[in-house]
Fold this sequence. Notes:
The protein has one domain (2-184, 199-389): Growth Hormone, Chain: A (Up-down Bundle), CATH 1.20.1250.20. The chain is globular, with a radius of gyration of 20 Å. It contains 16 helices and no strands. It has helices at residues 2-22, 30-36, 41-69, 71-91, 95-126, 133-161, 163-181, 188-191, 198-213, 216-245, 250-269, 271-278, 280-295, 303-327, 334-362, 365-389. This is MFS transporter.
Amino acid sequence: xNYILQMKKNITREYIYSFLNNFNLLSTVWMLYLAYKGMxxxxxxxxxxxxxxxxxxxxxxTGSVADIFGRKTSRVLGRVFWVISSITMLYGNNFFHxxxxxxxxxxxxxxxxxxxxxxxxxxxxxLNKDNEYMKIAGRIELLxxxxxxxxxxxxxxxxxxxxxxxxxxxxxxxxxxxxxxxTFKEPKIIEKKEKTTFKDVFVNAYNSFILxxxxxxxxxxxxxxxxxLVVGTLFFFYLQNYFLSLGINQFxxxxxxxxxxxxxxxxSFFTHKIExxxxxxNLLIFIPIAYSLLSFGLISNIPYIFNILLGGLNGILxxxxxxxxxxxxxxxxxxxxxxxxxxxYSLYMIIFFPIFGRIADIYSFNxxxxxxxxxxxxxxxxxxxxxxxK
Length: 390
């Protein structure tokens, strides 16, 4: 009975953790901070690329760490690396300092990416409530967005005073999150395993690759959906500098991103109802098309309105996509395969983030946005044709 109670508490603790972990003061200011420190858009693109090179190389090993040594262990280590990264960024003064900070931050995300979702999904499985994951994930995403919104507003406000203060407060908040992450209970599905060597980490990763070879629907959804999410990330980060070039200050940028987060949170919260009404296949066909069409509005006179609408569509897509993948994979490989999703995301970011920054440096933000929108529209039509035929 005590174990069942702990599994229930994992869900409640996850709500708190999601808020704390995403109350990220750095989200809307780190690119502005790097520019303030003398980095060009090309250098910022390279730093983000380095982040994703590190993430790409380490996603599978860190996912296997969560499967072998425990989701809780992986999560705690992730928060420790995040604090170290923030401190490194605070005291950094050149490209190489920032490169180290970005690599450490990538490791922190790697250690969290598969572990957190796997811990909650397996806690629900232990309670025989895994069919409620989409609803729970919607609530988690709501609290995630509330945390992010709070971070956008407070981070933007503090940055107007002094950029360095943002990193100091972010590090202190990271320490609080580490303490909270120690309160989770590992599901028995992980505890019953006796594997304790790093060799098992790579064996588990290899077996996960073999498993996905026979699940082509999951593979396709991973590659397409992660591409969509990457586009959302490109827009999110580069819009900060774009808005600044339009004369919008840091605090106002925080408000715009907060409104986008609010709409995303609302749509995420109701995703399980939206999915029941329209169906998985229809959502996967029409959301990308709608997203690509709305993205053309980023070069209009009201780009912030379209940014807010795009945030809502991203919220729906993410919940539907992750729920489907979780239903199609076994628990003992869950964290590793979810980390593979992040690895695909990182691969896309390695390729496209520096290219986007370079185009913006040479030509303009408008050219970068319109190029991505055209490519996205073509791919979303192809995706629709594929899914209709299947």
